[in-house]
Amino acid sequence: MKLCEFIRPTSLSEARDKLRELGPQGMALAGGTALHFLQDQTTRRAVDITRLGLSFIRKEGDFYVVGATTPLADIQRYRAPDWTLHEVCRRIATHQVRNISTIGGNICRVFPWADLPVVLLALDARMVVFSDKEEEIVSDEFFDGQPTQRFADGSLLTAVKVPLLRAHQGFGVVKVSRNSAAFSLVTMAVSLELDGEVIKTVRVAAGGAVPFPRRLPTVEAALVGREAKSEVFREAATKADSDVSWRGRESLSPDYVRQLAEVSLHDALERAVSFARARNA
Amino acid sequence: MNQYPMTVSFTLNGEKRTFATAPGENLLDLLRRSGLRGTKFGCGQGTCGACTVLLDGRAVNACLLFVGQVEGREVCTIESVGSFDKSSEIQQELIDGSAVQCGYCIPGIVMSATALMKAETKYDDEIVREYMDGNICRCTGYEKIWGALRRVLDRREASLAKVEGSGSKS
Ligand SMILES: Cc1cc2nc3c(=O)[nH]c(=O)nc-3n(C[C@H](O)[C@H](O)[C@H](O)COP(=O)(O)OP(=O)(O)OC[C@H]3O[C@@H](n4cnc5c(N)ncnc54)[C@H](O)[C@@H]3O)c2cc1C
Ligand code: FES
Ligand code: FES
Question: Distance, CA A93 to ligand 2 centroid (Å)?
Answer without folding.
Answer: 13
